[in-house]
TrEMBL record:
InterPro entries: CheY-like_superfamily, OmpR/PhoB-type_DNA-bd, Sig_transdc_resp-reg_C-effctor, Sig_transdc_resp-reg_receiver, WalR-like, WH-like_DNA-bd_sf. One of its GO terms (biological process) is regulation of DNA-templated transcription. This is Stage 0 sporulation protein A homolog. The lineage of its organism: Bacteria, Bacillati, Bacillota, Clostridia, Eubacteriales. Residues 6-119 form the Response regulatory domain. GO terms for cellular component: cytosol; protein-DNA complex.
Length: 237
């Protein structure tokens, strides 16, 4: 089963690449490596990957810029490797498109566990619904199986985690979810992030699916309680 998954690992230290590649291949994943941002993007645009492990400190093109460019064309799960450990910097990593992060120096065994968990969350089909959900006469279209979102007919790129949060909301229209409930329903008990990142995911989703993210019609805030999804923009908030 694991052999079906292809992983791109990007780091400027060959020793790290060799060790991570060896551990992942023991798990029967197919692994490709790159030593710099430019090489990573060249490889990514020529092949299909199920997950990217991306160091932030890269030559030629930074990890942040690589992440931005990948996010412009793909919702592939991304794990960032970073020496930055404080909460604000982790939130910034999530804001630019990362689905998970791990700080250096890190345990390769822990990284493998994170990879396994993120792949399981990202590709396990557990939603018994119609393949495509549409709202407001096609203004918003969500293809659940293809992990694809369209706004007014144009594809918008969501991270895997953003997509999972959106799915929880759109499949429970009108229901108010606290941050903790969204974490539980979107990611499950093995999620190792923190509930405040939900605010970041919501902000990013709004910027991509709302006509005006400062005056959202789809995902509304219920102050002191959480968030809810309104499928009809004419509904009174």
């Amino acid at each position: 089963m694991n052999s079906d998954f292809k992983i791109l690992v990007v780091d400027d230290e060959q020793k790290i690449l060799d060790v991570v590649k060896a551990y992942l291949e023991k798990e029967n994943y197919e692994v490709t490596t790159a030593l710099d941002g430019e090489g990573a993007l060249n490889i990514f645009t020529k092949d299909a990957f199920h997950l990217v492990i991306l160091d932030l400190m890269l030559p030629k093109i930074t990890g942040e810029d690589v992440c931005h460019k990948i996010r412009a064309i793909s919702s592939v799960p991304i794990i960032m490797l970073t020496a930055k450990a404080d909460e604000d910097e982790r939130i910034e990593g999530i804001s630019i498109g990362a689905d998970d992060y791990i700080t250096k120096p890190f345990s390769v065994r822990e990284l493998v566990v994170r990879v396994r968990a993120l792949l399981r969350r990202s590709y396990k089909d557990t939603i018994p619904l119609a393949d495509v959900l549409t709202f407001n006469n096609g203004d918003l279209e969500v293809d659940i199986k293809k992990l694809l979102v369209k706004k007014q007919g144009k594809t918008v790129s969501l991270t895997t985690n953003e997509f999972k949060v959106l799915i929880v909301l759109i499949t429970n229209p009108g229901q108010v979810f606290s941050r903790e409930q969204l974490v539980d329903k979107a990611f499950g008990i093995d999620y190792e992030g923190f509930d405040r990142t939900i605010d970041t995911y919501i902000k990013n989703i709004r910027q991509k699916i709302e006509d005006n993210h400062k005056d959202p019609k789809y995902i509304t805030t219920i102050y002191g309680m959480g968030y809810k999804f309104i499928p009809n923009s004419n509904e009174v908030k």
